[in-house]
Amino acid sequence: MTINLTWDLFIIVFFIVIIAYSFIIGRNQTLKIIISSYIAILAADGLGNIIRRYLLTKAPLTKLFSSVTGIQTLIILKIVIFVSTIVVLVTKGAFDVSMQKEKSSFISLLMTITFAILSAGLIVSTLLLYISGISVIEGVIEIKKINFYEIYVGSYFVRSMINNYSIWFCVPALAFIMTSFLNTED
Q: What's the predicted TM-score (pTM) here?
């Protein structure tokens, strides 16, 4: 059996790893990862855009960062900020998430699976967005201008995750809000 390494396979494996990890850490920590992801998205995109706009407008830096290598450096910077912010907030963040345990173990399992999938979707789609050079805050979509366009066209999952980023971005928050209303004590 031959397995071709493709972006679709990478995305599937990444989803499976995040979902498995979510089961290991539990629903409350998965929710903490989702909340931390939102903060990390804004921090990474905002800082990356500030660096691009204000620090890279100097003549020598503009030449460097207008090249392919410079664009890749900004992409890597955003990804590093995104991942490190999530790690710092989840491990050292000054907040806790504590949802009530469900009466039914099936409902609890279903909610854990749901939040695990939503967490994976949010993280994977954000990483793909950053790799593609799209800014969440500015909404700049220039996929055709970078080498990522071939991957975008050639991979169903990459295209789907980027095209539906707004869904992956809002559904975890909506699910958290809905479960917060359902879990309130009278």
A: 0.84
Are the CB atoms for 90 and 29 separated by under 8 Å?
Answer: yes
Q: How far apart are CA 81 and CA 137, in angstroms?
A: 15
- Rounded CA-CA distance 56/59 in Å is 8
Are 38 and 173 in contact by the 8 Å Cβ rule? The answer is yes
Question: Has residue 122 got a pLDDT over 90?
Answer: yes
pLDDT tens track for 54-90:
766 555 554 555 555 566 778 888 999 999 999 999 9
Q: How far apart are CA 30 and CA 162, in angstroms?
A: 22
Task: Supply the DSSP string of the chain, one letter for each residue.
Answer: ------HHHHHHHHHHHHHHHHHHH-HHHHHHHHHHHHHHHHHHHHHHHHIIIIITTSHHHHHHHTSHHHHHHHHHHHHHHHHHHHHHHHHH-S----PPPPSSHHHHHHHHHHHHHHHHHHHHHHHHHHHHT--TTT----GGGSTHHHHHHH-HHHHHHHHTHHHHHHHHHHHHHHHHHHT---
Compute the Cα dihedral for 121, 123, 127, 130 and give only its sign.
Answer: positive
Identity of the amino acid at 17: V
